[in-house]
Amino acid sequence: MRFKHLLLPALLAAFLAAVPATHAAQVSFGVQIGSAPVCPYGYYDYAPYNCAPYGYYGPEWFSNGVFIGAGPWFHGPHNFYGHVDRHFDPHYGYHGGYPPHNEHFDNHRNFHDFHGNYMSDGHGHERASGRSNHDRH
């Protein structure tokens, strides 16, 4: 009779022991997400966080050629806003190429040709960068 009462807890313990432990994941707004994708020029600050092409983010988003982040992985300084060029955003009509995840940052590129038309905090929140409204589309 005692064995019958111990059977259910034993089965539950065996089941829990058989389930593999999950890897540590970041938690943002109560949603479990994996680690940030490796994109040489950054990734869009909205799901599914695809790699953004060179020219989307301005120089303040990089530190020694390494993208510092956007989206749920970004934990930059309080009140950080950096320039982005929405012409390279598929939500605004961009149909060009995207870098593959294994591509590396090209140290020979510079930001002299960068022309941002928005400022973003990296979490999908924007504010105007001072240009006129027709420059933001």
Tell me what the structure shows:
The chain is an alpha+beta fold and 137 residues long. The protein has one domain (37-136). It has one helix and seven strands; from the N terminus they run H-E-E-E-E-E-E-E. The strands form three sheets. Strands 5-6-7 form a three-stranded antiparallel sheet, with no helix packed on it. Strands 1-2 form a two-stranded antiparallel sheet. It has a two-stranded antiparallel sheet with strand order 3-4. Strand 3 and strand 4 (66-67) form a beta hairpin. The longest helix has 17 residues, at 2-18. It starts with a helix and ends in a 10-residue tail after the last strand.
Q: Which bin fits the share of residues in helices?
A: 10-25%
How many DSSP helices?
1
**What Rg, in angstroms, do the CA atoms define?**
22 Å
Low-confidence stretches: 22-32, 131-137
Distance between the termini: 74 Å
Largest sheet: 3 strands, antiparallel
Average pLDDT, rounded to a whole number, is 74
Short structural description:
The protein has 137 residues and is an alpha+beta fold. Helix content is 12%, strand content 13%. A three-stranded antiparallel β-sheet has the order 5-6-7, with no helix packed on it. The protein has a two-stranded antiparallel ribbon with strand order 1-2. It has a two-stranded antiparallel sheet with strand order 3-4.
